[in-house]
Design brief:
Organism: Micromonospora endolithica
Biased composition (Low complexity): 34-50
Domain NodB homology: 81-264
CATH topology: TIM Barrel
Region (Disordered): 25-71
Signal peptide: 1-21
Order of helices and strands: HEEHEHHEHEHEHEHE
Largest sheet: 8 strands, parallel
Strand content: 5-15%
Distance between the termini: 134 Å
Number of domains: 1
Amino acid sequence: MRLRARLAYGLLLVLLVAACGDEPSPGRAGGGPAPAASGTLPAESPTAVTPRPPRAVPTRRPLRPLPAALPAGLHRTSGVRAVALTFDDGPDPVWTPKILDRLRAERVTATFCVVGVQVRRHPELVRRIVREGHQLCNHSWHHDTDLGRRPVAEIRADLVRTDRAIRAAVPRAKVPFYRQPGGRWTPELVAVAKQLGMRSLHWNVDPRDWGKPPAATIAARVRGAVRPGSVVLLHDGGGDRAATLAACPALITDLKRRYGVTRLR
């Protein structure tokens, strides 16, 4: 009897211990999630995560505003009664050779405002331009219409880079002019060009051939706006220049008859 009593008492203790082990712990009150299984780490509490500081985003200096009027110091006439023809945005492998062929057939010379990236791609065309007696003009590295609004150091670097590309193609070539894409001039740009030995070349006749109007429209616009000593803006690069090419024969014939055609001085 005494042995049975002891066994019964021991069994009762075991049951009591087991019952106590199933009680929820203070950290699990209210039926919270069970602890992580053995061998795995519990997830960190969200309050323990330290947020990373925001990454600094580099900011560019704001561009300076364009002046209300064109700045002083722009070269806008041929300097004589005859008219000067200028061609922008080349050299282009399709249209520049055809424009050069037409000018040679008409026995006139022009000024080619060349873009640096195009010079690097087609140096042989720059050599032909010079070889056939035409003038060269720096037209920025990649036709940046906002170049004049940028810091002076960026303006200078762009013009110098383009000038070096031209001279790599034709080491002894003269580059007496710079023309700002879009005609978006600033006094700072004019000053930098002057410091580098280039005059800032603008225009006073723009037939807007960049919009690809018909050849007859291009010729009519030039005839209506041209005056003695005019500088005419045309394009041999930047897209399909078939209409400009087609306009050249009648246009050049008319200009030669009325005023003559000359290379810029």
